[in-house]
Amino acid sequence: MLEPEILKKGDDAGNRMAVKYKSATTGAEVWALGIPQAWETPLGPTWCYVVEGEQLTVIDPGCHGSEHYLAEGLEYLGYSLDSVQRIVVTHGHMDHDGGCLDVVRASGAELWAHEVYGSLLLEDRWEREMSWRKQVSGFQAFENSETVERVKEHHQRALELKLDKRVTDGLRSDGLTYYYTPGHSPDELCIQFDKFMFTGDHVLPQITPHPSVARSHVSFRANLPERYRGTNEIYGLKAMLRSLLRVAALDTGHAVLPAHRAYYRGRFNLVGLERASEIVEHHLLRCQDLVNILKRWPCDLVSLTRDHFSHRELTDSNFFLALTEVMSHVELLLETGDVSVSGELSKGGTVRWNGTETFPEFIEELGAEFVAAPDSAN
Question: What is the pLDDT of residue 236?
């Protein structure tokens, strides 16, 4: 499928590596740069991809504070930072687009991303996100933590960005085809080039992407493009599973080039789009485990999270992620009617099992349209 060649060595997680990927079937080539994060993370670097075409394109330049690593990697490939003509952002999380402002300033490159990304750039999401975190029962927002300050700075810097091209589903340009795959983030894109699929955080080897929560649609819909303001189709586990099933249906021998874990612990992790189906199965099993817990006892979201993740140490830094992971699955189970909640879910409401397990059929049905017509647009 892929023939990776290490052009420049890095560490065993891939930080500061330069790699050439060549399609074994077509001979097409792309370059990958392991851009270190500006903080400690088990994810490893953000993998930035460089594509030659009518314009020199960089996909996901990485976080703020690591621009010099991008410049270093480009120079190794024979380019300068100011030779970048187009930046494509798979989604607006700070380890993907945090470096955009500095790269745009250095190069004058056009910024391309999904139209939802462009709409969310127009507002300062900081206070709204902190308000949402404070609403969750049992969680304190840690306003003075280093992580919170970093996120706040990211949102402030993003306000200075201007989106040059608002990408929509199915767009074809300069050899790239864009697929809208919301769920992990409401603006997530997967991008096809030849037999490669750049998947951002939508399809990852070794690890499963974190779903957004459906309730976020209520918080942000006023600033979304009009077509996304009605029924929520872009936030939450349901949206992510539907997007995963869509991508799985596109599989005709495409190689996945993910944003994380492409290389880890000294080895490449080469996967195809069948990995999307494996991630769906993971979330199906998580739903089943939550139902099994609720069969034993009704409980609130915090207690359900601690029970489900009893095998893991939930620290202050990762508890909120664990809680929202569980919340996204409970939201789906509420929609299927398998559980109910008394009170508000995010404010200590009690979740109860309703005696049914219809979620497997519900999830299977999400992908039915793509089995019939895999290239159909959302």
Answer: 96
Find all residues with CB under 8 Å of 90, minimum gap 6, and list them.
59, 60, 96, 188, 189, 190, 191, 198, 199, 200, 201, 202, 259
Mean pLDDT taken over the chain: 90
Q: Taking a C-beta distance cutoff of 8 angstroms, is the pair 327, 213 a contact? A: yes
Percent of the chain having pLDDT more than 90? 75
The answer to whether the beta carbons of residues 247 and 183 sit under 8 Å apart is no
User: For tokens 């703020």, what's the residue?
Assistant: 64
* Integer Cα distance of 125 and 347 in angstroms: 21
DSSP string computed for 3-30: EEEEEE---TT-TT-EEEEEETTT--EE
Can you give the pLDDT at residue 152?
75
Rounded average pLDDT over 29-39: 95
Sheet containing strand 176-180, edge to edge, reads 172-173, 176-180, 189-193, 196-200, 255-258
How far is CA 132 from each of CA 23, 213, 219, 229, rounded to the nearest angstrom? 44, 11, 8, 19
Who contacts 303 (Cβ-Cβ below 8 Å, separation ≥6)? Answer: none
pLDDT-derived band of residue 137, with 50, 70 and 90 as boundaries?
very low
Token duo for residue 132: 């949402």
